[in-house]
Amino acid sequence: MFSMNISRDFTDCSEFGNRSCSDNSRSPGVRGVLYFSIAAAFLLTISGNMAIIFSILYFKQLHSPTNFLILSMAVTDFLLGFAIMPYSMVRSVENCWYFGMMFCKIHYSFDLMLCLVSIFHLCSIAVDRFYAICHPLHYASTMTMAAIKQITAVCWSVPAAFAFGVVFSEAHASGIEGYESLVKCSSLCPIMFNKVWGTVLFTVGLFAPACIMLGIYIKIFVVSQKHIRVLSQTHKHSKSDMKNELSKSKDKKAAKTLSVVMLAFLVCWFPCFFAILLDPFLDFSIPSTLFDALNWFGYLNSTCNPLIYGFFYPWFRKAFKYIVTGKIFNPQLRTTKLSSED
């Protein structure tokens, strides 16, 4: 996502030099360093999320409802790295949009959509963990593969309808003085949100889902602590009890890992969403360079997710090792047990 400061007193295209970009004040050396750094970030994003996608699809042990939600979210992060970051990189380094205003809208729509898809997935994963830990007897009958497919469809379709509808209708820019002239005259891809849609985006796209997820994970923590107290008061356990508790322990670990993923998302994206919320109330005075920096800070969330999985999940580290060493070409490896902890 991207916004920029605009002047409110222009009525023609003279200041834009016939749709030309302003001179880039960065030296070739600085631009080279920026290109190298950003390219490294989106290549890491693409490769890391491809490893998650391939691991979950390839190894049968990983075919679970939670992991399929993680798979869908990894696809989101992969697409952000593959289809969004390269164009945003050129815009950020060159201070110019070379790809036309129609593609600007398409690019921004996908950018906004993928961000919302991620947070929808995080909400869905939180609900999945809630049923697994707080209502384990109903989990298998509630979170079926059919239910996961329906949830995934909602996670993709609702953000897509919102993002493309708002951007292509230009409802997000309704009432912004000078926006139409800026679009016609400049080569800066100036997408902005007015007060109404900026508030809607912040509330529906970040604040409300964050509150829902926070409430769910607090409930999971309370239930987990209750289970620990019950266990501490019981001296003897049957094998069946021990097996059930081991399963609950794995669910708690998964919930803890995914809560870290949620926290990383909020830390990365909250500054950008908050700036979008404030900007129209500050008469669009927030510098475009600051918006750009906050936007890239949000993008880095897609880079961080595979690193989080690699740190917390032994199965991902082992699967990644198989991929790198080429052992996955052995068909019998599909059924191998990656780890005792899922």
UniProtKB/TrEMBL annotation:
The keyword Amino-acid biosynthesis does not apply. It is found in: Cell membrane. This is G-protein coupled receptors family 1 profile domain-containing protein. It is a multi-pass membrane protein. Residues 48-309 form the G-protein coupled receptors family 1 profile domain. It comes from the Eukaryota. The chain crosses the membrane at residues 33-59, 68-90, 110-132, 153-176, 196-222, 257-276, 296-316. GO terms for cellular component: plasma membrane. Keywords: Cell membrane, Disulfide bond, G-protein coupled receptor, Glycoprotein, Membrane, Receptor, Transducer, Transmembrane, Transmembrane helix. The lineage of its organism: Eukaryota, Metazoa, Chordata, Craniata, Vertebrata. One of its GO terms (molecular function) is trace-amine receptor activity. Pfam families: 7tm_1. Coiled coil: none annotated. Its main location: membrane. The keyword Transmembrane applies. Belongs to the G-protein coupled receptor 1 family.
